[in-house]
Design a protein that fits this description.
Layout: E1 2-6, H1 15-30, E2 34-37, H2 43-54, E3 59-64, H3 65-69, E4 81-85, H4 88-98, E5 101-104, H5 109-123, E6 130-134, H6 141-152, E7 165-167, H7 170-178, H8 187-191
Length: about 190
């Protein structure tokens, strides 16, 4: 399965996040899965790519041309396929089109935006892919509290929380992706808060 991994591009993050992401992605590759990602060489993007490479998986990187032209980010040089886009929006659309499952690793603003976009698209019935939030060292505890709060206050339909799952354990995350069954709730029932 083609797995899109969203995660931090920062080279400044704690090594524990990098090591865990590399190990998870190596395990996924050894099980026959491939990677679609933002083509970055640093942070958790780079960790995902190195893990998939070490595990023998195919790697597709997607990155806007201006990242190369303006040296915004170091591009991972081990991609089997490298796709250049005109815009950030096109980058996300390309990754989304190629993805058969999503892993949301720890990250910053860009990762949060990617998570909420694919969650919204799933809520609207635009895809039925598995969405695994990779909760290394409690990174996403605050997100879960926030989602509980907005659900309790009726801004978000409670069923929407079932559209993704949170995992601290690698094997449970892999099992979820490999045995995922899409929800049967009609999308219009998920739209109401």
């Amino acid at each position: 399965m083609r797995i899109c991994v969203f995660g931090a591009a920062s080279a400044l993050i704690d090594k524990k996040f990098v090591d865990r992401t590399e190990r998870l992605c190596e395990s996924l590759a050894k099980r026959g899965h491939s990677l679609v990602f933002g083509a970055g060489a640093t942070g958790l993007m780079g960790a995902a790519a190195r893990g998939f490479k070490r595990g023998g998986g195919r790697i597709t990187g997607v990155i806007p041309k201006f990242f190369r032209e303006d040296s915004v980010e170091i591009i991972y040089d081990g991609c089997d396929e490298l796709i250049f886009t005109e815009t950030m929006a096109e980058r996300k659309q390309t990754m989304e089109r190629k993805a058969e499952a999503y892993i949301i690793a720890p990250g910053g603003i860009g990762t949060f935006e990617e998570f909420f976009e694919v969650l919204t698209l799933k809520q609207l019935g635009r895809h039925t892919c598995a969405m695994a939030v990779y909760d290394i060292d409690g990174f996403y505890d605050g997100l879960e509290r926030f989602m509980d709060e907005v659900t309790d206050k009726r801004f978000v339909n409670p069923t929407c929380k079932s559209l993704y799952s949170l995992f601290a354990d690698d094997e449970k995350l892999i099992d979820y992706l490999e045995n995922y069954t899409p929800p049967t709730t009609p999308w219009h029932e998920l739209k109401n808060g």
